[in-house]
Specification:
The protein has 435 residues and is mostly helical. The protein has one domain (3-431). The chain is 77% helix and 0% strand. The longest helix has 32 residues, at 268-299. It starts with a helix and ends with a helix. 50% of the residues are buried.
Length: 435
């Protein structure tokens, strides 16, 4: 292997381990690699790569979905949805926990991020779960694990990034996550119901009245139709992900300002500022990763890895297993978007050589990243829900959150195995999309 490749890899690892922000580490590693190859021309390449990245129409969907999630959060849409499910499920054993999981799933079908969903749902669900007799660790685990659904059920920001890097259809990538997402929701609901039923001190929750149910339907239906407005146009080919993101932002503002009246006109500028902050962070990571990916390609690192596995007769399933294990390990130290953006340019040549379906592999990678969101010491969902619980006055500790979260980690791995052995779980809907 070229010594330049080894030096670039060492620089990246050292920068990450000394606490350098991920986009800075990726950018520095990429520029130094390019500089070793082409001297001062590396800065011209870096400028062009950054400009092309910012000029990508598909990536425009990322800030729009971030803005949509911010509007939904500030507009109280999550609480309306939660009440909508709660009044219908609360009377059955584990029904309040099931309502929490379903709320996470529907919110996941709106904004495409996980940490925001976990924090949002935790802010109004933890107190109600505790009031209904759920163990504190179970209540925390439901919010942490359910929140991670945000990057699997469409729309999904990581899927947008994968599609941009791998030149795959974002719409098909979105649809590939639907069935695995539904399977995960069903497994979570069964686990929550069984766990609550086995609690010796569980409380019986009084059924909601018909008046409460009708009121919840009137308020929740406006939020519940948003996922339909996202998935149906995608499946039928009526709109692109970016167009749907724009319509979603418009509808979110309409619901928040004119229907729920929870957003005032003076709230719009603060909402835009908050969304801009999240967008800048993601964009910074994307630009750094693009520079790193360009350097990886120019230095031949990705091709060397591909040649090593293919020429040695390593089977395709073995390569998939090794890559999944590496991603799991990285999940203990890096957040999900960074893992994806580091690994995609490295893995693509090998995936192409093995003729592995990239849409199927993207689903495997995203589920793996969901596990990373639940993995200490850098499990972002864990810290988000722990912070929300402490803000609500609960005696939360990371140990308690991890205790409640690890079963969901196991269940995500179960879904990962199911999709690995039955690829049609991910590929059936994309193959039947209307053109």
């Amino acid at each position: 292997m070229d010594p330049i490749v080894i030096i670039a890899a060492i620089i990246l690892v050292v920068l990450l381990f000394i606490g350098t922000p991920v986009p800075v580490a990726l950018g520095i590693g990429g520029i130094m690699g390019l500089y070793a190859l082409s001297g001062n021309a590396a800065f011209l390449v870096a400028t062009k790569v950054t400009f092309d990245t910012m000029n990508d129409f598909i990536l425009l969907a990322v800030p729009l979905f971030i803005l949509m999630g911010t509007v939904l959060s500030k507009g109280g849409v999550g609480e309306k949805l939660y009440n909508f499910f709660d009044v219908f499920f609360r009377a059955i054993p584990g029904g309040v926990g099931i309502a929490t999981v379903l709320t996470c799933a529907v919110l996941a079908a709106m904004c495409g991020t996980s940490v925001a969903i976990a924090a949002m749902v935790g802010s109004f669900a933890i107190g109600n779960l505790m009031k209904c007799g759920y163990k504190f660790s179970l209540a925390m685990g439901i919010c942490v694990g359910g929140g991670a659904l945000g990057i699997l059920i469409p729309p999904s920001c990581p899927m947008i990034l994968f599609g941009s890097f791998a030149s795959e259809s974002t719409g098909q990538l979105f649809m590939a996550g639907v069935i695995p997402g539904i399977i995960a929701v069903v497994i979570f609901c069964i686990y929550v119901a069984v766990s609550f039923y086995r609690q010796p001190d569980r409380k019986k929750v009084v059924s909601a009245t018909w008046a409460e149910k009708w009121q919840a339907v009137k308020e929740g239906i406006w939020a519940a139709i948003i996922p339909v407005g996202i998935i149906v146009p995608l499946y039928t080919g009526l709109a692109t992900p970016t167009e749907i993101a724009g319509l979603g932002v418009l509808w979110s503002f309409i619901v928040g300002i004119f229907i729920y009246r929870t957003i005032r006109l003076q709230d719009i500028i603060p909402i835009l500022r908050e969304a801009l902050s999240g967008t800048v962070m993601i964009t910074f990571i994307i630009c750094g990763a693009m520079l790193f990916g360009n350097a990886v390609t120019q230095l031949g690192l990705a091709q060397n890895i591909s040649d090593f596995f293919v020429s040695s007769g390593f089977p395709a399933w073995g390569f998939i297993l090794v890559s999944m294990l590496i991603i799991l390990i990285m999940g203990a130290f890096l957040e999900g978007v960074s893992i994806m953006l580091i690994m995609i340019p490295i893995l693509l040549p090998a995936l192409s050589s093995y003729h592995i379906n990239l849409i199927w592999y993207a689903v495997l990678m995203v589920i793996n990243i969901e596990v990373a969101l639940l993995t200490p010491p850098v499990g972002l969902n864990i810290y988000a829900v722990d912070g929300v619980a402490k803000g609500l006055g609960f005696p939360s500790t990371l140990a308690t959150v991890i205790k409640g979260s690890w079963p969901f980690m196991v269940m995500y791995l179960l879904v990962l195995i199911m999709v690995a052995f039955f690829p049609q779980l991910a590929l059936w809907m994309p193959s039947h999309m209307m053109k």
